């Protein structure tokens, strides 16, 4: 089976969806951020604090190349992963890329609850967060849109919505598997 890479903005549900989708597909699940944390024995926040975003992106690049050679795997990437170096091209060459897309409003709502855990959005007011997401999403769209599959995620609030999203993405993946 080919590798599957989930891409999309932070907070869209890549990890939540990825865990369940990997079970449905019968493959191993790798959350790239967790993979980095385990290898470096530090949180993403600590790596950002110590090395800055550029240092983190270099580590992310290397770990993506490593995990991207695993067989029978679904990899949930960080929100910025596709936007640096040639990561998006690498993922498209190594497997199937799925962009999980959501509106600025949906992302703002979801990220307000977890912004202290995410280095790029720490300390932002709701209005600042919405503006940041809007600008960031505009910048990143050209990378995300290179995905082989684009899935518009209207809601990811309840387990029912998550299960429906997993079923829908699995169905979209069938021709590629």
**What's the total count of β strands?**
5
Taking all Cα atoms into account, the compactness measure Rg is 15 Å
Count every helix, treating DSSP H or I runs of 4 or more residues as helices. Answer: 7
- If you average the pLDDT, what whole number results? 90
Straight-line N-to-C gap: 6 Å
Structural class comes to alpha/beta
Describe the structure.
The chain is of the alpha/beta class and 177 residues long. It has a single domain (3-170), classed as Rossmann fold (3-Layer(aba) Sandwich). The chain has helices at 14-25, 32-40, 44-67, 87-94, 104-112, 126-144, 159-173, and strands at 3-7, 28-31, 73-76, 95-101, 149-152. A five-stranded parallel beta sheet has the order 2-3-1-4-5, sandwiched between helices. Helix 1 (14-25) crosses helix 7 (159-173) and helix 2 (32-40) crosses helix 3. It is globular and about 40 Å long. The model has no long low-confidence stretch (mean pLDDT 90).
């Amino acid at each position: 089976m080919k590798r599957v890479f989930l891409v999309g903005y932070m907070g869209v549900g890549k990890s939540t969806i990825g865990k369940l989708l990997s079970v449905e597909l019968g493959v191993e699940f790798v959350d790239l951020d967790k993979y980095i944390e385990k290898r470096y024995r530090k949180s993403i926040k600590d790596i950002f604090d110590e090395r800055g975003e550029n240092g983190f992106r270099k580590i992310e690049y290397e770990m993506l190349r490593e995990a991207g050679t695993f067989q029978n795997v679904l990899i949930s990437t960080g929100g910025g992963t596709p936007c640096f170096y040639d990561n998006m091209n690498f993922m498209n060459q190594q497997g199937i890329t799925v962009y999980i897309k959501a509106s600025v409003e949906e992302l703002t709502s979801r990220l307000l609850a977890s912004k202290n855990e995410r280095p790029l959005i720490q300390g932002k007011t709701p209005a600042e967060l919405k503006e940041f997401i809007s600008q960031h999403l505009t910048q990143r769209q050209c990378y995300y849109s290179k995905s082989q599959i684009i899935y518009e995620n209207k809601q990811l609030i309840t387990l029912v919505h998550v299960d429906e999203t997993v079923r829908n993405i699995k169905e979209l993946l069938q021709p590629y598997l």
